C-alpha cells in the first residue's frame, strides 16, 4: 500500500493486489458495486498491475480500481480498467455523494496521476450506476452506446411478452427438443466449457486476449466475493451451449457465452438466457444484464439481445488525458494522427498497420 497523503481531513492511498483484506473491505462497504470491482477479479487480470486508488475522509470514500501499464521505451505509464464494467465506487449512492467529497477526490486523483507519471486513463463505466456524477468534473466522458437488460422484477409472463417472436419461437423449440440446463461446478464441465468457448473465439477470429484458459475459468468461478455460476445446456449427454454468469447485488451479468457450432441453427443461447432469467428470480436477482453489441455498436449482436427486452441502458467510458503534451508526442511517434476520429483510446496504443 502506498499512502500518498494522510492528514486530519483525508487519507489518500493506493492499494495493491497484496492488500486483499483492505480491498475486499472497501468493495463490501460500497453501495453501488459489481463483481468487476472485486479483488478476486482484478487478481486474475493479465493486462496490467492492479491498483485501487482510494480517497477517504473518516468513513466516507471514493475509490477507483484500475490496471497500471508501462508505456514502452518511456518513463511514462497509463491506466485502464479490467474487461467489463468497472468505474468508481463509494459508500454513498452516486447521486448522494457530497460535492465537496467529489471535488477533493478529483484533486487527490490529479495529484496521484502527476506523481505517478500517468499519461492517460481509460475506464469502462457501469451502465446501472450514475458514475458520471463523479467523473463529469474531469474531461473525457464518452458516450459508447447502449446495453440491454431484462427486468426480472416483472412476472415471467410479462417478460416473455417482450420477446421478439423469433426469440420466443427459438426458446419454445429448444424446450420441445428436450434441451436441459445444469448448474455445473465439476472440473470436467469447466474443461468442456473452456474447449467450447475457445472454439467459438477461434471461429470469430478473436484476439489472443479472449482465449481464456481452463485455469482462468476455474479461478474465476471459485471465490466467495461474488456468486459465479457455470450454466450449461445439454442435449442428452452432450454440452451444446454454456455461459458463465456473475450474480452480485441484484444484478446478473451474462459475462461469457459459447455455443457448439453444430447447434447454432437451434439457437440454444436464447433458451439459456430464458432459463437463466428463471434461475435469477429464485436467487433474488432484479436484473439480467445482457450487455451491448460488438464494440458496443448497434449491430447484429445488439439486435439479438434486443430480442429479449426493450430495456436499454446508456453505456459510457472515461477517456482522460492527464498529460496532453506527452500524449500528443506518443501519438505522433506511432504515426497515428492526433485528429483521428477512430473509436480507440489511447491512440498511441493503436496499431498503425
Short descriptors:
single chain; 353 residues; 11 helices; Aminopeptidase; 14-stranded mixed β-sheet; 30% strand; 2 domains; 14 strands
Report on this structure.
This protein folds into two domains: 2-138, Aminopeptidase; 147-314, Gcn5-related N-acetyltransferase (GNAT) (Aminopeptidase). The mean pLDDT is 94. The protein is globular, with a radius of gyration of 21 Å. Strands 1, 2, 3, 4, 5, 6, 7, 8, 9, 10, 11, 12, 13 and 14 form a 14-stranded mixed β-sheet that branches. The protein has eleven helices and 14 strands. With 353 residues, it is of the alpha+beta class. A hairpin with a 4-residue loop joins strand 1 and strand 2 (11-16).
Amino acid at each position: 500500500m502506498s499512502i500518498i497523503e494522510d492528514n486530519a481531513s483525508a487519507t489518500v492511498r493506493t492499494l495493491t493486489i497484496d492488500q486483499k483484506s483492505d480491498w475486499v473491505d472497501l468493495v463490501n462497504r460500497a453501495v453501488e458495486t459489481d463483481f468487476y470491482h472485486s479483488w478476486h477479479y482484478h487478481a486474475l487480470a493479465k493486462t496490467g498491475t492492479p491498483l485501487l486508488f482510494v480517497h477517504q475522509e473518516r468513513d466516507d470514500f471514493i475509490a477507483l480500481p484500475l490496471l497500471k501499464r508501462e508505456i514502452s521505451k518511456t518513463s511514462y505509464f497509463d491506466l485502464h480498467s479490467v474487461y467489463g464494467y468497472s468505474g468508481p465506487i463509494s459508500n454513498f449512492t452516486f447521486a448522494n455523494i457530497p460535492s465537496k467529497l467529489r471535488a477533493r477526490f478529483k484533486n487527490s486523483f490529479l495529484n496521484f496521476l502527476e506523481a505517478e507519471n500517468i499519461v492517460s486513463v481509460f475506464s469502462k463505466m457501469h451502465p446501472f450506476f450514475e458514475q458520471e456524477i463523479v467523473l463529469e468534473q474531469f474531461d473525457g466522458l464518452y458516450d459508447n452506446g447502449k446495453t440491454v437488460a431484462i427486468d426480472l422484477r416483472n412476472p415471467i409472463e410479462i417478460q416473455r411478452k417482450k420477446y421478439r417472436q423469433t426469440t420466443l419461437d427459438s426458446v419454445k423449440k429448444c424446450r420441445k427438443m428436450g434441451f436441459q440446463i445444469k448448474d455445473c461446478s465439476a472440473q470436467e464441465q469447466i474443461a468442456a466449457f473452456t474447449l467450447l468457448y475457445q472454439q467459438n473465439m477461434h471461429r470469430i477470429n478473436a484476439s489472443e486476449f479472449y482465449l481464456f484458459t481452463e485455469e482462468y475459468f476455474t479461478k474465476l468461478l471459485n471465490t466467495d466475493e461474488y456468486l459465479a455460476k457455470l450454466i450449461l445446456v445439454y442435449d442428452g449427454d452432450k454440452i451444446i451451449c454454456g455461459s458463465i454468469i456473475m450474480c452480485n447485488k441484484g444484478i446478473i451479468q451474462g459475462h461469457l457465452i459459447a455455443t457448439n457450432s453444430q447447434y447454432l441453427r437451434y439457437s440454444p443461447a436464447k433458451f439459456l438466457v430464458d432459463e437463466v432469467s428463471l434461475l435469477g428470480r429464485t436467487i433474488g436477482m432484479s436484473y439480467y444484464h445482457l450487455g451491448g453489441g460488438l464494440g458496443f455498436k448497434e449491430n447484429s449482436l445488439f439486435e439479438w439481445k434486443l430480442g429479449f427486452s426493450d430495456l436499454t441502458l446508456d453505456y459510457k467510458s472515461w477517456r482522460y488525458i492527464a498529460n496532453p503534451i506527452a500524449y500528443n508526442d506518443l501519438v505522433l511517434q506511432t504515426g497515428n494522427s492526433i485528429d483521428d476520429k477512430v473509436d480507440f483510446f489511447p491512440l498511441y496504443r493503436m496499431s498503425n498497420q
